[in-house]
Structures are given as C-alpha cells and as structure tokens.
Specification:
D-Maltodextrin-Binding Protein, domain 2, ABC_SsuA_sub-bd, alpha/beta, 2 domains
C-alpha cells in the first residue's frame, strides 16, 4: 500500500532518527534471566516501551513473574517518547518489537509495521488549554503544540472535526511530548494535544489547566487501542520470537488484570516513579483478559476498531486508502498462541 506521508510527518520521523540511538544508548534497561549457563539458551529480544503505565506495565510484570525465561526469551528494554519514533527504530537492529498508542497505528496501516498483540484501550489523551480558555474555539489564532502522528494528534483531529474547525484556524506547532510539557508550563503555548501521565507533569506548572477534550468524548464512534508491533513480515520470518513474545504478553496481561494494585507497584518500581503516579495512569486504561482479547480478535471486533481508525487517518491524509486490517494484524497468530 502506498503511504501519503505529509511533509511534517517526514520531518518528524527524520528529526527523531538522531534521538533513537541516544535513547538506546542512555535509556536501555537490560534484564539478565536465570544463571549464566541458562541465559545462553535464551533468545534475545529487544523490546521498545514508553515510560508510562500502558507502555511498561506488562514488561514489569513479565520481569517479576519470570515469564521471559519460561518463553525462552531474554529481553533488553529501550525507551521511546512516542510511537512513530519507536516504529522508525524497527528498521534498525536496535529493537524487535515496540509498544505504540492508537495514534501511531497509521504506520501499520501504511505497511510500516505489523501488530502482534493488543495491549489495552486508552482514555489517556486530552486537548488541554491554559487557564481561562474554556472551548477549542477560544484557541483560534493561538499557538497549539501537537506531537505529530501520535494519539494526541489523532484526538486533535477528531476535536477539530466535531467543532467544525481546521488546523489553519490555529498556529499549530509540531513538538516532542517532553518539550510540550515544558512549553505549556512556561506559558509559551496556549494549548496542546497530549496524554497522561505527561499532563500530570504539565499540571505542576499550570495546576488550573483546562481539559477541553478526551478520548471518552468519541467513544461511541472510535476505540483507541494500544498495541505491540514489529516490522512487517517479522512474525512469519521469526515465528519463535513472535509466539514467545505474544505468550509473555498474554500471561502478563492476565496477571495485570487480576492483580491491579500489585501491577501498579511493579510498574512504578520498573520506571522509578511513585505508586500514586502509576495509579492515576492506570485509571485511564480499559483492560481485558487475554481470553477476552482472543474473542475480540476472532470475532472481528479488533478489525472494526482498526477500520474506524483508518477512516480517520485517511481524512487526516496520513494514509491514501483504507486497507484490509488483516494485512497488518494476524488475529489467528494471537489467538492460537498460548500463555507461558
């Protein structure tokens, strides 16, 4: 499928290339599993994550419960700030599979990645504004920061369509999420498309910030799944790696579903953050058991989610045409892979 990359998308991904090697070098967290002798028999897997509850909880659980070794894998973790950067890294030798939010699913739809597993459904995204601004229309002509190609960008498009506005009505500036937090706290921008837990950080500088829109405002029409993705064709090429990873994710997912409080504590420890921060992040995630995800996949519900998102991506000119979601999500692989 031909991808219609806008100039801002190409620029965003190009600027992110330099950051990938830095993240891999400075932020990687490696877990040694088992004894030195046993570790030699394990298959190495490089896993990209985003440092929040949705993006790291299953990694924290898998470490705690020893699921990696049970699946014959030895993980190395690499942090990313957003999904498009993580997917770009799939084209290197640094990472095998990465976590992404729903806003980056236009890249799998464009043939840039394949989905191995659904993680959760998110309600973490928000359109925020400085204190005193009560509607999106009041931001017209003002500076709004948007992290290109992310779930925040996606929510911004939905909000604009709902309000009958366009991006040309605002001074839209493409910025990386951490830079948005700093700029918002300093009053350098008037609004932003962002997500929790970054909004918690923004509130430290502007505690009276206003939330104008959230995912929940569109829940009747759109579902916002976060997923784990790999390079196109990777599962067929390295089935042992793919099924091993999926088995770990499904096992950790069921543990998380049954042990929310413990998972919050494990994730906080994994990310070196406070338990209360993780609890707040967990509150904006809708979780399913792996059996429920199997049913949602086999009955076609996940494909319906992906088609709905593709319709939005096409309107935003991120993709030229809607493609069969079976080309980038093999539900049979997910359903047929057992837990460890």
């Amino acid at each position: 499928m031909t991808t219609n990359f806008s100039r801002r998308n190409v620029l965003q991904l190009s600027l992110g290339a330099a950051a990938i090697s830095l993240l891999a070098a400075c932020g990687a967290k490696t877990e040694d599993v088992g004894s030195a002798g046993a570790a030699k028999d394990l298959l190495d897997i490089n896993v990209g994550y985003i440092a929040d509850y949705n993006g790291a909880a299953l990694m924290a659980v898998a470490d705690q419960e020893g699921y990696w070794a049970k699946a014959g894998l030895k993980p190395k973790y690499l942090p990313f700030t957003n999904g498009p950067l993580a997917i770009q890294a799939l084209g290197t030798n640094n990472v095998d599979v990465v976590y992404i939010g729903s806003g980056a699913l236009w890249l799998p739809a464009s043939g840039k990645a394949e989905i191995w597993a659904v993680n959760s459904v998110s309600n973490a995204d928000r359109i925020i504004a400085q204190p005193g601004i009560k509607t999106l229309a009041e931001l017209k002509g003002k500076k709004v920061a948007v992290p290109t190609g992310t779930s925040g960008d996606q929510l911004f498009s939905l909000a604009l369509a709902k309000e009958g506005l366009t991006r040309e009505d605002f001074k839209v500036t493409a910025m990386e999420p951490p830079a948005i937090v700093a700029a918002f706290a300093a009053g350098q921008i008037d609004g932003a498309a962002l997500w929790y837990p970054l909004i918690d950080s923004a509130k430290k500088g502007q505690p009276d910030l206003v939330e104008l829109f959230s995912n929940e405002d569109f829940i009747d029409t759109f579902t916002f799944p976060s997923t784990f993705v790999a390079s196109p064709g990777r599962a067929a090429k390295d089935k042992a790696l793919a099924t091993g990873f999926i088995s770990v994710v499904k096992s950790a997912n069921d543990y998380r579903h049954a042990n929310q409080d413990t998972t919050i504590a494990l994730t906080a420890k994994f990310l070196k953050l406070k338990d209360e921060d993780m609890a707040a992040q967990a509150s904006v995630a809708k979780l399913f058991t792996s059996k429920e995800l199997e049913t949602l996949s086999s009955e076609g519900t996940v494909y319906t989610w992906l088609n709905g998102l593709q319709e939005q991506f096409k309107k935003d000119e991120k993709i030229k045409a809607i493609t069969d979601p079976k080309t980038f999500y093999n539900s049979e692989l997910f359903v047929s892979t057992p837990t460890v």
